[in-house]
Each structure stands twice: as C-alpha cells, then as structure tokens.
Amino acid sequence: MKPAVHFGAGALGRGLVIPILVQSGQKVVAVDTNSNLLSKLKEQKGYQLHISDDENNPYQFIPLYNSLNSVEENAEVIETVRQADIVTTAVRRQNLKYVAPVIYEAWKNQDCKNKQVICCENVENAGSIFRELLDKYLKTDEEKENFKNIQIPDTIVDRICAMSDDYTITSEIFHECSVDRTQDPDTHLEFIPSIDNIKGHFYRKRYLMNSYADAISFLGLEKELLYLYEAAQNEEINQYIEKTIRLYFKLLEVKYDIPREESEHWFTLYRKRLSNSNIPRELNTVARNLWDKLTLQERFVCPLMELKEIGIDVIDALRSIVRMIEINSKYQNEALSKEAISLRLEKLWCKNSIGNELYKEIMTLI
Description:
Layout: E1 4-7, H1 11-23, E2 28-32, H2 35-44, E3 46-51, E4 59-63, E5 66-69, H3 74-83, E6 86-89, H4 96-107, E7 116-119, H5 126-135, H6 141-147, E8 155-158, E9 162-163, E10 169-171, E11 176-180, E12 194-195, H7 198-222, H8 228-233, H9 235-256, H10 260-274, H11 302-309, H12 315-331, H13 338-349, H14 353-363
Parallel strand pairs: 1-2, 1-6, 2-5, 3-10, 6-7, 11-12
Antiparallel strand pairs: 3-4, 8-11, 9-10
Helix pairs in contact: 3-4, 4-5, 7-9, 7-10, 7-12, 13-14
C-alpha cells in the first residue's frame, strides 16, 4: 500500500486529519518541523488521542507508518511524497507555501492522474490557494498539463482540538472534513467525503460556529468568566446574541441555500460542543484581536455586508458589535473616545457603499 503523507502534526493534524486517514484505511507518514514532537512520534510509532466526550473509548492510539522532519530529512520527505497518491495538510494558510515546492519536486516527473492534495486548513478556498502556490513552480506546458490532473479541492474542516505542553491532543467525537464534489468527485477516503455546496457549508460553519464563539468570548469577559465553555453555557449571553444568530440563519437560507431548520440543527450542535467543559479553552485565547476581526472580510462584518446586499436590517447585530468594542476597550485598558472609535471604523469600513452604510448606522449607536 502507498503511504498517505500528512504535513502538520499540530492540534488539528493529529486531532482530526491523521485519525480519519487511519480510519479510512491509510498508512500515514507525518511530516513536521518540531524535532521534540517527532522524536516522541517515532519512538512510540504513533500517539494517544483523548476523545473527551467518548465514555466508552476515551483513549485511542493512532498508529503512524513513519514521522519525518521536513527540514532535516527533506530528501526523504520528497521521496516519500513521490511514492504517495494522497497528501493532506494542516499547517495553517501561511505555511502552505513551504509544502508546494515539495509537491512539485516529488511529482514533476510522475503521472499525476490519480494524485490529490487535500488542504485541511480552516480558511475559505484552501484548495484554490494551494493550487496557485503550486502553479508558480510549473515551468513547461507539459508540466502544467500534467499538474492539472492533481485534484486539489476546497475543503471544510471542523473539530475542537487542544494540545497540551506535553503534546497530548484532546478532542471530541464530532468531526467534519469534506471536499468540494465539483473539484474532487471521489476522494476514495471513507471519512473525507465529497459534498455539494461546499461554499454554503463553509459559511454555515464560519458564521454559526466561529462568529458565535468569538462573540460570546467577548461577552464572557464582561461577566468575568474564564473559559469559553462557560460563555457557551451562559443563558444571558446566548439570549443577547440570539438576534444576531437569527440574522445568520436568514443569510444562510437566502444566499447559501441552507434551510433554516438545518441551520438551527447545526447551531444547536455547535453550542453543545462549545459547552463541553472537558476541553477548557481560556476566554482570553479567543477574545482577542477584535479590530482585526472587524474588517469587511472578517467574521463579524462580512455577514452584515451580505445581509445589507439582500435588503435585511442589521441594527441588532451592530448593537452587538458596539458592545464588544466597549468590552474590548475596557479589558485592553484602552479608553477610546467616540471620535477614536469613529476614526478606526471609518478606516476599516468606508471602502465601498455598503461599508459606508454600516459605518453611518453603527455611529448612531455609539
């Protein structure tokens, strides 16, 4: 059997991607740059995964065929990829540029018809991003035609995974790892299915999971909570954010063809997962970088832009943003005047007509 090569042995890699590759019948070679971690993986020929909400089988041993250092064992990594048809990544978007030249070197003289790269990164259009990086290395028309045969689909990935100081991974029963059926009709991996409407489901997860988690984390700071699960469990916080969540339901239904009942199901599941006290995530690791999260492209403002485009009032969601700004200012010891907030929001939002509208509306609330 050919190996499946996985780049990135961090929390998501060992908590989600490697386990589902193994469950799909693959022998997996893990590639990373952390020498201490790799030594442990080699010595144990795998690692222990703690599934915190599985009462029957909370500890699972995940076997590894091999573990390689992409810096110190680069030649062996290239040779291993050359033998593989399946490559996966969980390295974060900014590190995909280091994987692309390895794929090129390994497969430039190979028939690429049955090869696939599945980028399990928590960003939109991960496959398209990686293909652009890979294309930069193609020199001849022959190489360009051959590399077109590699299936590099966009993905959606989701599993709460936490890594402790001793590299132990704690996770949950739930997992989601799917690819765009139009780009990769069949991964031949049982636990990485090809699905329709990958874009809609990406935004379903982004808004109902990520936007929700970030919002309740800031609201939780105000109540002096310590952990994200406490904020998810708090009824007062959830009542406050409910109107914003209902706006997300409307957006997903109208623009992304996700029925309201399906969104409600997913949101209930997301809140339950975030309420899991067995994976304690400190609030201050989530409630951070608010101003970076208030750009037009980010999780709080992007859905409001989309809602405005289809003529839906977003004043309730803007009230939530104002409250988060107030909380953030207090906990960052940054006493911002109305004029200072106005200047920041103007710089972030007044880049198009809809952004201008949102800016005018939110300034009536400050």
